[in-house]
Amino acid sequence: MKRRGQLIVLVALIAALVLIHFALREKPATPAAVAGKSAASPRAGARASLSAIPDSLLQVKERKPDLRRRAAARRNIFEYGRRAAPPPTEAAVAAAPAPPPTPPAPLRFYGFAERSQGGRRQVFLTDGEEVYLAAEGDVVLHRYRVLRVGNQSIELEEVSGKQRWVVPLEQP
Q1: 155 pairs with which residues across the strands?
Q2: Of 131, 130, 124, 129, whose CA–CA distance to 109 is shortest?
Q3: What's the predicted TM-score (pTM) here?
Q4: What distance, in Å, lies between the first and last C-alpha atoms of the chain?
Q5: pLDDT tens, 98-110?
Q6: Sign of torsion, CA 111 115 118 122?
Q7: Where are the domains positioned within the chain?
């Protein structure tokens, strides 16, 4: 008899699970149909009013796909290393390559001297090891010409004329 009682309880549990499964599988009513029902019968129960509230989490088919998840799906979690770069866009291909940046000025401002009687303004320039005294038009290290000594900066030019630099007048 003990075995028969266990079998009856088992069948009852399976039947209860099947009923619960079919009760939860029932399709929710559309909001328009629920609104029509509630207008027709103002005594609708609390259960009907709760089912009328649309839940965005339950409407999986109507939701737009998440682009972040789609991008993460392209990754292979078993492959070690960097991800392959995406193919270049047309705008990146069409853009002209930028010219290489000019190297920093070979000489830095170290100080200046000016004669009190209106003489030429001279600047002290350094390359890190030596200090050089130069005025406008002078050539330093047989390679760099001082074009202009202003109040804010000094203009240097390579003797060959290929490059120019503007060195700000800042005390080291």
Answers
A1: 148, 166
A2: 124
A3: 0.42
A4: 102
A5: 778 878 888 888 8
A6: negative
A7: 1-97, 108-168
Q: What is the distance between the alpha carbons of residues 53 and 34, in angstroms, rounded to a whole number?
A: 9
Total residues belonging to the chain: 172
pLDDT of residue 38: 47
Residue 27's Cα: distance from chain center in Å? 42
For residue 97, what is the DSSP state?
Answer: P
- The pLDDT of 56-71, averaged and rounded, is 62
Tokens of 158: 């390579």
Tens of pLDDT, residue by residue over 112-163, are 888 777 777 889 999 889 999 999 999 999 999 999 988 889 999 999 888 8
Angle at 149 between CA 112 and CA 106, to 5 degrees: 80
Alpha helices for the chain (secondary structure H): 2-25, 31-40, 46-51, 67-73, 90-94
Report how far residue 90's alpha carbon sits from residue 82's, in angstroms, rounded to the nearest whole number: 23
SS3 state at 21: helix
Residue 21 and residue 15: Cα distance in Å, rounded? 10
Residue 53 has pLDDT above 50, yes or no: yes
The residues, ordered by sequence, that sit 6+ positions from 122 with a Cβ below 8 Å of its Cβ are 112, 113, 114, 133, 134, 135, 149
Other beta carbons within 10 angstroms of residue 108's beta carbon come to 16
